[in-house]
Amino acid sequence: MRTRKQRCEESRFCQLGCRRRRWKLETAVLLTTAILCLLLLLRIDIQNKKSQNTTDKPKFKPEPQTSPDLFLRSANKCERNSSASNIKGFSTLPKHIQDFLFYRHCRHFPMLLNIPGKCGGPENSSDVFLLLAIKSSPPNYERREVLRKTWASERLQSGVWIRTVFISGTTGDRFEKKRLNKLLQLENRKYQDILQWDFQDSFFNLTLKQVLFLEWMERFCPNVHFLLNGDDDIFANTDNMVQYLKGLYDNDGSKHLFIGHFIENMDPVREQDSKYYVPVQVYESDKYPPYCSGGGFLLSRFTSRTIYNMSHSITLLPIDDVYMGMCLEKAGLKPSSHMGVKPLGLNIPSVKLDPYSPCYYREVLLVHRFLPHQIFIMWNEIHRQDLVCGKKALSEQNDTNM
């Protein structure tokens, strides 16, 4: 028989064994729980990242990025109209005016760079609220880079989408032209925001550039709500533009809208030494129709389409903003003025005040003639959280100048 001592030792041994088994079981449960919690956290993190990606990216279904589009690439080379030399006084005109008259009839050029899926395809283009169409010559790389980082950045603004295209022709001869075309190719490969046609990019071809873009828009982005037409040297407060356009009463882009810096009763410039010289051989009338001066203007989808349709029967004029006014006049529509559009800059009340104070620019829509570094600085300044404006800011400026 076992002694009392043996029985106690056996009992103690059993208790130790039970404790060990319980400890192992508890350890296994804790490890299992920890692993399950870790897996759950990883799953939540993955879902959050997917959600962020879905929010940050457009819900478009882009068309294949064929570049250039086969249809647009097939444009035949436009032949010179030699009969233009029979126009009275032709021989007295400057060469660039003669060239314009020789090729004035040309409206179709091969497309070198295209982004057919920019608006998600024609059927999804209504997802784009504001399309920024920026005229830019090939060498203006620095301007385009700054705009992409500032007011022309593609983004979801106040719940609506902003999309951007730069419209360009070609410049330079032989090797320089080839290099600049390569520059635009590289940019488009990275950003998918260049439209380029094979025509000479010059001041007198700005209207041609405009008409080519409107044709492109009608095909690839027909249902965009609104459009900003602008140069690459403007400062555009696109935040304010979205706010203004969203606040329009009963107009989602399906009705007439054309706003900018309104001009009327303007005479054509007849002095040959002027950049804006337009002789009677190009434009006979002694008055331009009402129009909005260049730099930039906002228009609706309805008005953009109307201008494009009118342009088919209106001879090209080298002054692009006047040409838009001609198309509007033929359609029985009028441009309008907006106090937020300042093509000639701002009227600062005192020479003692900083003309580039962000307080003057945070409420505007558009100001013309900005250098790239000025655009970059101003965009960041007007978005400062600690920006103080009003009487206090003016007082601080005056104190600094004393």
TrEMBL record:
Alphabetic keyword roster: Glycoprotein, Glycosyltransferase, Golgi apparatus, Membrane, Signal-anchor, Transferase, Transmembrane, Transmembrane helix
Gene Ontology MF terms in the entry: N-acetyl-beta-D-glucosaminide beta-(1,3)-galactosyltransferase activity
Top-level taxon in the UniProt lineage: Eukaryota
E.C. number(s) listed in UniProt: 2.4.1.-
Subcellular location: Golgi apparatus membrane
Transmembrane residue ranges: 25-44
InterPro entries reported for this sequence: Glyco_trans_31 (IPR002659)
Membrane topology: Single-pass type II membrane protein
Gene Ontology biological-process entries: poly-N-acetyllactosamine biosynthetic process; protein O-linked glycosylation via N-acetyl-galactosamine
Family per record: Belongs to the glycosyltransferase 31 family.
PANTHER family: BETA-1,3-N-ACETYLGLUCOSAMINYLTRANSFERASE, N-ACETYLLACTOSAMINIDE BETA-1,3-N-ACETYLGLUCOSAMINYLTRANSFERASE 3
Stated name of the protein: Hexosyltransferase
Annotated source species: Pangasianodon hypophthalmus
